[in-house]
Amino acid sequence: MITTAAFVFPGxxxxxxxxxxxxxxxxxxxxxxxxxxxxxxxxxxxxLMTHADAATLADPExxxxxVLVWSLAALDRLRKAGWRPGAVAGHSLGEYTALxxxxxxxxxxxxxxxxxRGKAMAxxxxxxxxxxxxxxxxxxxxxxxxxxxxxFGTDVAVVANWNSPRQLVVAGTVNAIEHVIDAAADAGALxxxxxxxxxxxxxxxxxxxxxxxxxxxxxxxxxxxxxxxxSSTTGRRITDIEAYRADLLTQVISPVRWSDTVPTLAAxxxxxxxxxxxxRVLGGLGREMxxxxxxxxTWDALRQSPPPARTGAGDLGHPVPVPHLNQGKMT
Length: 331
What we know:
Blueprint: E1 5-9, H1 19-25, H2 28-41, H3 45-51, H4 54-57, H5 60-80, E2 87-90, H6 94-101, H7 107-127, E3 131-136, H8 140-150, E4 157-164, E5 167-172, H9 174-186, E6 191-194, H10 207-219, E7 229-230, H11 241-250, H12 258-267, E8 272-275, H13 281-289, E9 294-297, H14 298-302
Parallel strand pairs: 1-2, 1-8, 2-7, 8-9
Antiparallel strand pairs: 3-5, 3-6, 4-5
């Protein structure tokens, strides 16, 4: 069994205006991290976190770097407070923070890769216009059937996020997603509404982004996880890091399987889930699937003592060192 605490890291969509004020509350390391992110990505991270409006923050090129910086700062602060995750996972973009947390990736490489990822996804969204919608309260097979019916000619609709047994997100061309929304409402969905996003993420409309990430991901140094790492692309624990490299490449066109990820963490022994990053979206989803566990935000966790470790053979209950290689931008 692992230690009781699993760290889960949020993805794009968790950013919010003024998030820099909360970032500074995480301590001096957060400011150092923000400056390093500015050097690596070329973005005015501190300015954007403090003053950018919601529309600006919705740009994947901006949002993904800012969420990563905030989450890395939260990881550092939680470790200094004595928290030691027994397992980690990240929702889509959050998987890069999880890779840092388990010792598979250094911070600077993560910043470089996420900067490339955000730019690639933003460009793909400009080249193939699409959108996403949340569907709540319909069986998965029904939503899948609605997507198939809406996909014809050049129109595409797919399930992009399996967030929980009752919440799915669909992505695709605008016309197809509007068809799915209308059909879902007719089928009795509790909610079916378009999301405020800039593209059809985790769908075939992101093929261009996947191709752009091929070389940076092939060159990125990945190490074997030192604590259990569960991928939201597969919903399974990753042990072969080189085989996983291919999953990380296809992540931008593959669905997020969070409804498989949380049960896998629970099977590893997690009964406390700490959302190490901005917001509380993952806590809400986690409560649907791990009802008897505790689900904490970063701030909740910092206000209480970490749970004692329950470490079994083959699992590490010690902090994972995170190297800072200062490698700069990847091209």
